[in-house]
C-alpha cells in the first residue's frame, strides 16, 4: 500500500531563514505520526505544505499520491486540517456551521458529528464567539473529523484543552486509524499525549529531520545509563555518539543509543558497573534536542 504522505528533500525558506531544510519522511496508512520539535523548528511550515496552503521552494511532496499544488476539490476533501491558529466564523451558530460544512463534503458522517458534539459538550445553538477557546478547538477538530478524511493534519490540536478533553481527542484519533486505511499526522508540545497514541515519531530541529522511526524502537534503544565503580578515573570514559555525557571522578551519566549488549560491553571495557534508567518520550526528546555545548559536562 502506498504512503499517504511522502516527501523528498523538502525545503522552504522565509528570507534567510530555512524553515524546512531537506525534509524526507513517509506516513503509512493506519499510522499516527507524532511530529515533534522545539518552537520554530519547522513543524507548522511542514504541515501547511502538506495541507496545500504553502508551496515548497525545492523537493517533492505527495499527499494521497498527489502533489498538493495539484489538489482538486476531491483531493482536498480527503485531507482534514486543524491549524495552530484556527479561525472559525465568530457570528456563526455551531449547528449552522456544521450544516454548512456537511454540504461541502459528500462523505460527511452526521452520526459522527452528532456524537462528537455530545462528547465535546458543545451546545449546538451557541454562536462560535460565545465558545471558550478550548470549545472552539474542539469544534475545529469535529469539523476536520466528521468528513472522514484519509489524512488528518493537526497542528497543536490539544492547545487550550483540559485533561478530560485531551483524553477524548486522543481516543478519537485512535478511532480514525482503526480501519487501517487512514492516518493522522500531528504536532504537539504535550509529549505525554504523543506517547499515548503515536506509533511513529519524527523530530525536527532547525528545519532538519533528525529522526523518524517507530516510537517503540526509539524507547527501546535510547537509554540513560549510570556507570560507576570505575577502577580509575571516570573522567576517562568516552562515548563519542552520546546525546549527553556528565562525568565526575567517581561516575558518569550517559544518554546514548544502544542495542543489544552494547552497554554491557562498554562497561566491561572500562571495568565498571552500570545501571539503566528508564526514559519516557519527553526525557528522550529533551536529550536529543539539547544544544551541543550542553551535552558534555565534566
Strand content: 25-35%
Radius of gyration: 22 Å
Number of helices: 10
Uncertain spans, ≥5 residues at pLDDT below 50? none
At the third CATH level, what is the topology name of the largest domain? Rossmann fold
Secondary-structure content class: alpha/beta
CATH level 4 superfamily of the largest domain:
P-loop containing nucleotide triphosphate hydrolases
Strand order of the largest sheet: 5-6-7-3-8-9
**Terminus-to-terminus distance:** 50 Å
Order of helices and strands: EEEHEHEHHHEHEHEEHEEEHEHE
**CATH second-level architecture of the largest domain:** 3-Layer(aba) Sandwich
Average pLDDT metric: 91
The CATH class of the largest domain is Alpha Beta
Number of domains as seen in the coordinates: 2
Give the beta-strand count.
14
Helix content: 25-40%
Gross morphology is elongated
Can you give a write-up of this model?
This protein has about 300 residues and is an alpha/beta fold. It folds into 2 domains: about 5-205, Rossmann fold; about 220-295, Alpha-Beta Plaits (2-Layer Sandwich). Helices cover about 30% and strands about 30% of the residues. It contains 10 helices and 14 strands. A 6-stranded mixed sheet has the order 5-6-7-3-8-9, with helices on both faces. The protein has a 5-stranded mixed sheet with strand order 13-10-12-11-14, sandwiched between helices. Strand 1 (about 5-15) and strand 2 form a beta hairpin. Helix 4 packs antiparallel against helix 5. The longest helix has 14 residues, at about 165-175. It starts with a strand and ends with a strand.
